User: Which sequence fits this backbone?
């Protein structure tokens, strides 16, 4: 069983539980996705970044 730290969307509390202990709100996993050499969407991400800097 893996335990991942989670953060509440509404009250910004960090926890390991499935629901927020203080407000019973939704939680998101705070870790970034794993890096992959075979990045499927890298081309689109770089293009979006380039367009954002052109403005």
Assistant:
């Amino acid at each position: 069983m893996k335990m991942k730290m989670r953060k509440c969307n509404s009250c910004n509390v960090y926890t390991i539980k499935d629901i927020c202990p203080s407000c019973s709100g939704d939680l998101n996993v705070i870790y970034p996705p794993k890096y992959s050499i075979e990045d499927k969407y890298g081309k689109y991400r770089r293009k979006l970044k380039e367009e954002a800097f052109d403005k």
About this structure: The two ends are 46 Å apart (CA to CA). The chain has a mean pLDDT of 84. The CA atoms of residues 13 and 51 lie 35 Å apart.
